[in-house]
Amino acid sequence: MDKSVYQVYEDEIQSLEEEIKLLAEKYEDIQHESSFFSDEEVQKSKEFFQREFQGGHKGHGSQLYLIQELESLERDLSFSMNFLGVQITGHSKKTLEKTAIRTVATHSVSGKCRFLSFCLEFQLTETQNMYNVSASITDLSIAMESGQQSELSKLVSSYLKENRPGYEK
């Protein structure tokens, strides 16, 4: 064989040795990074996440608690709707302002109460601090289909005029 064939093999061997060296360095780096956490710490973290995702954690954030809370709220809403005769047919929300501690949104709710169609529009301001959340409703407007129960409409308007400063229909 001539020298050029040997040179090609020598170059290939050198290239493979360099690649092996780079791979060995990468392996050492990975081993070094994974040694930052002890086996005990890794096991504790693994167990925590398994409990968290399998519903073993019983705090307010657990999935089981949230499902139970949702079912309870749905039962309460159904009872209230049946008792009062109110059916909500539509809702829309537009967020006007949102910060870390305050959210302001306008809501529009339409529905029927027994035989009376209505539409409520209001602004909801929610403020949150470390200990609680407070909410207030402002700019309340109640609209009913014209011609239906004009006495009721007058009663609501007069109540709002007397009890809400600056309210004029």
From TrEMBL:
Keyword annotations: Coiled coil
Question: Pfam families from the entry?
Answer: CENP-P (PF13096)
User: Which GO cellular component terms, listed alphabetically, does the Swiss-Prot or TrEMBL entry include?
Assistant: chromosome, centromeric region; nucleus
Tree of life domain: Eukaryota
Spell out the InterPro entries in the cross-references: CENP-P
Is Coiled coil one of the keywords UniProt gives this record? Answer: yes
| Entry coiled-coil feature ranges | 6-33
**GO BP term (any one):** CENP-A containing chromatin assembly
The protein here is known as Centromere protein P
Organism, as annotated: Callipepla squamata
